[in-house]
TrEMBL record:
Function, in words: Acts as an acyl-protein thioesterase that hydrolyzes fatty acids from acylated residues in proteins. Regulates the mitochondrial S-depalmitoylation of the nucleophilic active site residue of peroxiredoxin-5/PRDX5, a key antioxidant protein, therefore modulating mitochondrial antioxidant ability. Also catalyzes the deglucuronidation of mycophenolic acid acyl-glucuronide, an active metabolite of the immunosuppressant drug mycophenolate.
InterPro entries to which the protein is assigned, alphabetical: AB_hydrolase_1, AB_hydrolase_fold, ABHD10_acyl-thioesterase
GO function terms (MF aspect): aminopeptidase activity; hydrolase activity, hydrolyzing O-glycosyl compounds; mycophenolic acid acyl-glucuronide esterase activity; palmitoyl-(protein) hydrolase activity
Enzyme class: hydrolase
Domain called AB hydrolase-1: residue spans: 35-166
Record keywords: Aminopeptidase, Hydrolase, Protease, Transit peptide
Taxonomic lineage: Archaea, Methanobacteriati, Methanobacteriota, Stenosarchaea group, Halobacteria
Annotated Gene3D superfamilies: alpha/beta hydrolase
Assigned EC number: 3.1.1.93, 3.1.2.22
Reaction(s) this enzyme catalyzes, per UniProt: mycophenolic acid O-acyl-beta-D-glucuronide + H2O = mycophenolate + D-glucuronate + H(+); S-hexadecanoyl-L-cysteinyl-[protein] + H2O = L-cysteinyl-[protein] + hexadecanoate + H(+)
Protein name: Palmitoyl-protein thioesterase ABHD10, mitochondrial
């Protein structure tokens, strides 16, 4: 059973609007007290592979939640205003809306960075799993150079980022996660990823002081093949049987 919710972001700046912006979230219900919340990537949304991941989570006994950050998918807001900090705020409101006693976070790409920083600040998180997580600001050096030169960067989809994106990114270095995070971590990364360097995940795994499971998926890029996605889910839920029980 699934149900879509509109969750107000009550502490967002609303400007001339009379109502706070909302984010769209889908709850895949399971008859348990276990929860798994999914965070999508920079220019992604809650559709596509996240629906399959949520169905698999329910099969494993988890209430699963996927949602669109502001500026993405079916949520309110402009993409250009969507920073790491706004995404952390959105995630916080989504979790508080469903109010689980504890939960696991899964984040993909930039959503992995969101998941890491959220977990480091929320005692309710029992484990963090990521796929090709962003763990260094260097991932965006090309975009930063363009923003410093031109004031903004426009993707081929028309979505834009500006200095707000990098200002927020710089306020949240991965060092903050390293010094704080204590729950088990899983990192899955495609060996042929040309977007987020797999070496970054190996470096992050070395630096983290919690238990870390790191798997390199040979032949997979930043987007996994269908076979790679099936392997990812098998590995994820096999690991969670140990990490979250």
């Amino acid at each position: 059973m699934t149900q879509t919710h509109r969750i107000p972001i009550t502490d967002a700046e609303i400007g001339t609007d009379t109502e706070p912006p909302t984010v769209a979230a889908v709850h895949h219900r399971a008859e348990s007290d276990d929860w798994l919340v999914f965070c999508h990537g920079l220019r992604s949304d809650k559709s596509g592979s996240y629906e399959q991941r949520c169905r698999r989570a329910v099969e494993a006994g988890y209430n699963a939640v996927r949602f669109d950050c502001r500026g993405c998918g079916e949520s309110d807001g402009a993409f250009v205003a969507s920073t790491l900090e706004t995404r952390l705020t959105d995630l916080h409101h989504v979790v508080d809306y469903f109010d689980p006693d504890s939960f696991v976070l899964f984040g993909s790409s930039f959503g992995g960075k969101v998941a890491f920083h959220a977990a480091a600040a929320d005692d309710r998180v029992t484990a963090v799993a990521t796929r090709a997580p962003v763990t260094t600001a260097g991932t965006f050096d090309e975009y930063r150079a363009a923003v410093e030169r031109d004031g903004e960067w426009t993707f081929d989809t028309g979505d834009r980022i500006d200095r707000r994106f990098f200002d927020a990114l710089d306020r949240h270095p991965f060092d903050d996660v390293v010094s704080t995070l204590s729950v088990p971590v899983a990192i899955f990364h495609g060996g042929d990823d040309a977007v987020v360097d797999p070496a970054d995940s190996f470096d992050a795994a070395r630096r983290l002081e919690s238990d870390v499971c790191l798997e390199r998926f040979a032949g997979e890029g930043h987007r996994f093949s269908r076979a790679g996605e099936r392997r990812l889910l098998d590995r994820l839920f096999g690991w969670l049987e140990w990490a979250d029980r």
